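Why DUF1214 domain-containing protein? Reviewers of the renewal asked for a concrete example.
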Amino acid sequence: MSLELFRAAIAEAEALVRNPPFEITEQELAEGLDYLAGSIRSSIQMAFDYDLDHPVLINPTHQYARQGLDNPDAVYLNAYLTHGASYVVSGRRGSSADLSFQVMAGTYSDAGAPETLAAFDDRELDIAADGTFEWRFGPELGLQKGATLIVREVFSDWSTEERGQLRIQRLDTAGVPRGPVTSERVEKRYGVAAKMLTGRIRTWFAFPEWFTYKEPVNTLTVPATTPGGLTTQFSSIGHYALEPDEALVVTVPACEAAPYQAIQVGSKWYVSTDYEHHQTSLTRAQSHVDDGGLIRYVIAERDPGLANWVETTGHAAGVMMLRWQRVERSLGQADGPQVEVVPFASLAGRADLAAQRVTPETWRARIEARQVGIARRMIS
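Here is what the prediction returned.
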C-alpha cells in the first residue's frame, strides 16, 4: 500500500536527517527534525493538492516548511503543468518589490536543476491601471507532464508592501467538474508524497555542494545570475565559519539598479534560520545605509549593538546569500560584497559602524516589526 510507502519514506527521511553528510550539534539535530516535520507537511500538501486537470497555486515553502535556502522576503507559489494544456495566470499586482514567474521542465532533484522554459518578472506583463493582469501560455513553451510554475512575490519593506491576488486556471478543463475521490487516487498520492519527501531531503543535501561549498570559507562570490534559471535575479553566495570571538563584516553598495536587495544567513540544512523572531536577514529597506551609499552588515553570534547585525542564532557555521532582484542591468564585481573576518571586540571602536549603533529598546522594536511583518504577509 502507498500509505506504507509513505511511512517508510518518513523513516528513511528521519535516518537521513539524523545522519547527514556533515557534522551537527544538538541544536542542529533539533532543527533538522523540525525541518523534517515541515518537509512531511509540504510533501503531503504538494501531493494532495496536485491536480493536472484543475491546478491551483500551492504555497509549499514558508516559515513552517523551509527548503532550498528559502528567501525570508518571499511568498512562493507553485503549480503543476502538463503536456498539451493551455493556462491563464491572472490577478491583481500588489505592491511587493518584485513579482516573478518561472516555468521549469520538472522539479529540483539531487541530480540537478531542471531546464527553465520561461523566466521573467511582471515588467513583461501588460498591467492595467487597477493592477489587474493576465498571462496566457501553453504548448508553445514545450510543456510536458511534470513541468512546474513557480511564482515568487518578494517584499523589501515588510511594513508597507501588500500582497497581490493571483490564480491559475487550465483553460481546456474550465467548467469540467473534478471526479470523485477514489481509493486508487488517494493511494497514488501517498506514493507521490513518499517520493517527494525523500527526494526533497536528498536534493538540498546535494545543491549547496554544487555551488556554495565550492567557495572558500568566509567569502562571497561576485554577483551572478542565480543558479537554477531565475534570470531576473542575481546573487552572491558563500558560507561562513566563525569562532565565538569573531565576526564577519560584509560591505556592499546599495544598488539603485535593483529595487530589491537583501542578505540572509542559513543553517547547514540549507534552509533559512528563524527570520521572524531574530534578524537573520535584512533587505535594503530594513538596513542602515551609510552616507557613502554602503551597507555594512555584521554577521555574529553576540549582539554588537548595531542595526545591521545579522544573527547566527547558535550556528557557528552556515551558508549566506545576497540577492538582487528586478535588476535593470547586469551586476558585476563593483556591485558585490567585500568580506572581512574581524575580532568581535574590534567592532565597538570602528568609526564606519558608529552611525548604526542602536539601543536595546530600538532593537526590541526592530524584532517586533519583523513579527508584525511576517504576520501581515506570510501564509502557511
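The mean pLDDT is 96. This is the kind of structural detail the renewal will allow us to pursue systematically.
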